Amino acid sequence: MNVTLFGLGYVGSVTATGLAVRGHRVIGVDTDEAKVATINAGRPTVVEPDLDALTAEAVASGALRAATSAAEALADSDLSVVCVGTPSAGNGSTNLTFIRRVVTEIGRALAGTSRPHTVVIRSTVPPSTVDEIVVPLLEQASGRRIGSNLQVAMCPEFLREGSSVADFFDPPFLVIGGSEAAAAAVRELFGFVTCPVHVVAIRSAESVKYASNAFHALKVAFTNELARLFRLLSVDSREVMAVFVEDRQLNISPAYLRPGFAFGGSCLPKDVRSLLHLARMNTVDMPVLGGAMASNDILVRDLADRILQAVDETGGGNRRVALLGLAFKHQTDDLRESPNVELAEILIGKGLEVRIHDPVVAPAKLSGANLQYVQAKLPHLQKVLHDDPAEALLGAHVAVVSCAQPQVVAAVLDAAPPVVLDVDGRLAPLERLAGYQGVGW
Ligand SMILES: NC(=O)c1ccc[n+]([C@@H]2O[C@H](COP(=O)([O-])OP(=O)(O)OC[C@H]3O[C@@H](n4cnc5c(N)ncnc54)[C@H](O)[C@@H]3O)[C@@H](O)[C@H]2O)c1
């Protein structure tokens, strides 16, 4: 492909060279004349292992050159790759000035031409940027409409400085946000990679990058936070974490990374509280772990607020709420620290008429600490618990569904309450109901 690449910094320098040595004809564009001259002299603009030889090879073969003018570069181009910086502004927001400028330049250069062109945003941009900023600017400046001869895709970059060349040729996956036609162009561009390709909504593609970097940041902070406490307890955190990462079933795995409801049960809250107590005793601040507890509490309160708002919107005419699922997860009757019990307690306290069904929970069978917990939180559980999900749903304005049992799903479909809150995320059949809402999607 004939490719124009904007921004010859850390990402752009590696990407331009990598695409050129894999058979594309690449013109790199940068406003910085020194960077343009550096590339044209066969040298990369950044220091990265293996990049010098590849850049020299790409420039010597004629596959890569650089320019300061977009108009010249775009004349014969099939595809633009945008790798300009998106730095933090003073208030933490993302400065999109360079993105706006480049997209407008691309649009202007395309105006009056009809050669099909795909614009690929590789820079990290906040969710909605492509839809709300890139597309309007591009359409306005080019006089074209996104469709047949103009496509836009979001394709975030995951390379790491220090190993960027190796990462570029062997990424974990290729994430493409955009139409099938836009995705086809990006697939052709990266035809040399063997990783999985995920074509998703543009906003999802924008967000995967943020989710990834946020998670990396969280992991580093989490590990170092634990290490600060463990050191004071004469624990070698290197040994702990070396074993910790060996667990690929629960620790380093998709487990606990599915959007849904708050954590609960007899272990997670108790053990996090215990660590926070140890931290206080040793005057160690643990804001990440403390934040996890606070964030979990907010989730329950937010859901309660959504339910109360939905009920308020009926003008108080229908205060009936069905809770389908009471235990903290499926297939258990352990109610200790279940966020659903917390939710029921808040809603009953606010005067709503709450009816509950859980296929596994039978009050007569509860015992020990489990029974004591329920007696303290929901003393009248017997009265609000229904064996039949249809009974719990009778006349309900809101159904909160955290239980994927087929008989529960069937009952919700049958009752079709005006508001159905899915707090499980695996209740696809409910999505056909007009009142369906996801707790976090
Ligand atoms: N650095 C990384 O490791 C990394 C990894 C993945 C994603 N990203 C993302 O990629 C993007 C680029 O990051 P970077 O580290 O390469 O930035 P950088 O600052 O090193 O490079 C950006 C380049 O864009 C150029 N530029 C600015 N305006 C321009 C214009 N109008 N026309 C042409 N060129 C222009 C600048 O002169 C500069 O050379 C950012 O959104 C960043 O968040 C970076």
Could you walk me through the main structural features you see in this protein, from its secondary elements to its overall organization?
- This protein is of the alpha/beta class and 441 residues long.
- It has two domains: 2-202, NAD(P)-binding Rossmann-like Domain (Rossmann fold), CATH 3.40.50; 299-438, NAD(P)-binding Rossmann-like Domain (Rossmann fold, 3-Layer(aba) Sandwich), CATH 3.40.50.720.
- 45% of the residues lie in helices and 13% in strands.
- Helix 5 (97-110) runs parallel beside helix 6 (129-142) and helix 12 packs across helix 13 (339-349).
- The chain is globular.
- The structure holds nicotinamide-adenine-dinucleotide.
- Nicotinamide-adenine-dinucleotide (NAD) binds at residues 6-12, 29-32, 35, 83-86, 98, 101-102, 123-124, 157, 159-161.
Topology (SSEs and partners):
Layout: E1 2-6, H1 10-21, E2 25-29, H2 33-40, H3 51-60, E3 64-67, H4 70-74, E4 79-82, H5 97-110, E5 117-121, H6 129-142, E6 150-154, H7 164-169, E7 174-177, H8 180-189, E8 197-200, H9 202-232, H10 237-244, H11 268-281, H12 287-312, E9 320-324, H13 339-349, E10 353-357, H14 368-377, H15 381-384, H16 389-393, E11 398-401, H17 406-415, E12 419-422, E13 436-438
Parallel strand pairs: 1-2, 1-4, 2-3, 4-5, 5-6, 7-8, 9-10, 9-11, 11-12, 12-13
Helix pairs in contact: 1-3, 5-6, 12-13
Bound molecules: nicotinamide-adenine-dinucleotide (NAD).
